[in-house]
Amino acid sequence: CWNCTCLFAWGDHFKVCTHAPTSELLPDDFPKPFNGDPTLCSVHPGEVLKLSCPLPVTGTITWTKDGGSLGTNNRTLIEQEVLQIRDAMPKDSGLYACTSVGKDTVCFIVNVTDATWSGDDEDDTDRSEDTWVDSAPYWTSPEKMKYNFYVPAATTAKFRCSAGGYPQPTLRWLKNGRPLHQEDRMGGYKVRHQSWTLIMENVMPSDRGNYTCLAENVDGSINHTYSMEVLGRQPYRPNLLAGFLSNTTVRIGEDAQFQCNVYVYGESHFQWLRLIPRNGSRYGPDGPPYIKVLKVDMEFLTITNVTEEDAGEYLCKVSNLHGEAIQSAWLKVIPGKLLRKYA
C-alpha cells in the first residue's frame, strides 16, 4: 500500500492516510481510476503544509491546485513528490493533486483554518454554567468561535455557539440573515441544544453562506456569524471506492447483486457492462473487448434467477465530463447451495 502524510512544520504527524490500490480485473486498454479516496489534511494558519505524493517516482511529478498548475514561489517549494507551503493561509485551502507522467493521480483536500469543520474533537457534552443573577447573554468560549470555515464537500460541518446568562438564553440560527428551516437544505440539519451546536451532514455547494447564531433572553441578545465555503467543487473525474464491488458466487436460480460506490462531484453517468468472450477471446479483431450494456444510471446491478450463462465478468463504469473510472467483478454460478464471496 502507499502512505501519504500531512506534517506540521515541527515534524509531528498530523494525519496519516493509506491509499490501497483496488484489485481490478480490467482490460489493459481501460483507463485507471484514482488510487484511493482523497486525503483530508487540516493545518492552522501560519504553519507549514507538507504533502507527500505516494505515487512511484518514475518520471516527472506535477502538482495542481483546483485544476491549475502549481509552481515554486516565495512560499511554495516543490521537490518532485513533496510539496511544501510555508505560512499557510486560508486561501491555500482547496483540492490538490499530484500526477506522475503515465501514472495515476492522487488527491488531497486541504483545509487551512483555526476552526474544526468535522467537529470530531469538539466536546459536545460541555455545557455553560447557569448563573442565578439576571444577566444578558454572553459567549462562554469566544476564543473558539472563529469566523471562516472551509469544509470539504460531502463531509459534516458543525457550528457551535455556547452561551451563558440568566435566564438561560435561547438560540436561533439564520442563514444569510434569514431564519434557517429544515426544508432549506436537502437532508435538513440537526440542532443539539445542550451543546449549542448546529450540524449539517453531507455538505454541498448550495450550503455555502453566512450562518448566524442568535442568543437571546429578556435582558438582551448577542449574535455571531460563521462564513462557510464548501471545498471540492473543482472538477475531477470519478473515483470508485474499493470494497463495494466484489466477486460473488451464487447457485443456479438465485439472485446476484453487485454494488458500485463512487466519490465524485457533480453529475455522473453509471453504466453496467458485461464482457462477453467470443471464440475463446475477450477481445475483438481490433482490440477492444466485446461488451454488452446491461443497465445505466444505477449504483446496483441485480441479476435475477441466475443461470450458468450469467457467469462471467461484469464492469461498473462511471463517467463525467472530466474522465471515467472502471471496476470489475466476477460472477461464479454453481449448482450447489453455497452462497459466499471469494477474494
TrEMBL record:
Record PROSITE patterns: IG_LIKE
Cellular location(s): Membrane
Keyword Membrane: yes
InterPro entries: FGFRL, Ig-like_dom, Ig-like_dom_sf, Ig-like_fold, Ig_I-set, Ig_sub, Ig_sub2
UniProt enzyme class: transferase
Keywords from the named record: ATP-binding, Disulfide bond, Glycoprotein, Immunoglobulin domain, Kinase, Membrane, Nucleotide-binding, Phosphoprotein, Receptor, Repeat, Signal, Transferase, Transmembrane, Transmembrane helix, Tyrosine-protein kinase
Topology term for the membrane: Single-pass membrane protein
Entry-linked SUPFAM superfamilies: Immunoglobulin (SSF48726)
Domain Ig-like residues, every copy: 21-99, 142-229, 238-332
Keyword Mitochondrion: no
GO MF, one example: ATP binding
Record's GO cellular component terms: plasma membrane
One Pfam family recorded for the sequence: I-set
EC numbers, comma separated: 2.7.10.1
Stated name of the protein: receptor protein-tyrosine kinase
